[in-house]
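Async update (no meeting this week)

Hi team, since we skipped the sync, here's where things stand on the single-chain job. The sequence we agreed to prioritize is pasted below, unchanged from the tracker. I ran it this morning and attached the output directly underneath so nobody has to dig for it. Comments welcome in thread, and please keep replies under the output.
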Amino acid sequence: MNSKDVKKVKISNLQLEWDRIKLEVQHNFLEKTNDKPYRATLLLKYDVRFKEGKKIYLKMNIELEGSFIGNPKLDDTEFKKLVIHYGILNLIQITRAKVAAISANFGFIQPIYLPMIDATDLVNKKMKEVLG
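Output:
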C-alpha cells in the first residue's frame, strides 16, 4: 500500500494514522503422488504500524500460516489457483479478525481493526509467480 491509502483509526483518545502496511506471501506446493491429495501451505506476513504525527504508538508483525488439502482428482493448475486466490484472501480476513479479538482482550477501549486491503495486485503477482 502507498501513502495515498493511509487510514485513520481512533484508539482511546488518540487519532492515529496507519503509516505502513506491508503484505508478503510465501508458498509451498508439495508434489502430488499417486492418488494422495494435493497439499500446500501459505505463509502470510503482515507488517503494520500506526502513529500520531511522528510518534509511533503500535507496530505489529504478524505471521499466519494456512495449510490446504485438495482432492486428488482436481487438476494441478486449478488447485494452485484456488490456494493462491482464496487462501490469500482468507488469511487476510483471519488476520484482521484475530487482531480485533486480541486487542479487545487487551483492554483497548475500541478494538484495533486493520483496514480492508485490496489484495488484487498481490493475488495476481502470486498467480503469475506460481503458474508462470
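Quick observations from my side:
Residues 77 and 131 are 7 Å apart (CA to CA).
Residues 3-131 form a domain with the Bacterial Protein-export protein SecB fold (CATH 3.10.420.10).
Reply here if anything looks off.
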